[in-house]
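Kindly review both lines to help learners:
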Amino acid sequence: MQLKNLFTEDRAVSPVIGVILMVAITVILAAVIGTFVLGLGDQVSETAPQASFSFDYDGSELTITHESGEEIDANLVTVTGNVNVTTDGTANLWATLGNDPISAGESIVIKDDTPGDGFEDGDTVRVVWTSESGSTSSTLQKWTYNA
C-alpha cells in the first residue's frame, strides 16, 4: 500500500454502528434517570439485613434467638403469628431493648395467643424486618409448628 492511498481512502465505520451506539447510550441514560426520578433508587439502599434466627419450643414457650448475621435495630423487628400480639397484629418484643441493636446471642421468649395447650399444628411465627421508612418489609425467619 502506498502512503498516498492511506490518506485518500474513504472507508470508515458504518453509520449503522454509530446509530446503534447512540441508541444504546440514550436507553441507558433514560433508565438511570428514570430510576431516580421514580424513587426506585432510594429503595435500593433499604435491603433487608442478613440474619439467622433459631426457634426452640418447649411445649409452652417459644424462644427465638438471633443466631448469626448483622446487628438489627430492635425497633425495626416484629414477631407475627399466634403470639401475644398488639392490636395491629404484631408484637415488637425486641423493642423492650430500647434503641440497642439485636445482636447474635440475644433471645426473646413468647407464648402462643390461642387458648389451650400451646401451639396447634400449622401455627406459624415469623420474624419480620421493616425498613425505617416503612416502605419495605421482609420475613427474616419463619417457624411452623408441626404436631
Summary: The chain has three helices and nine strands. Confidence is low (pLDDT under 50) at residues 85-89.
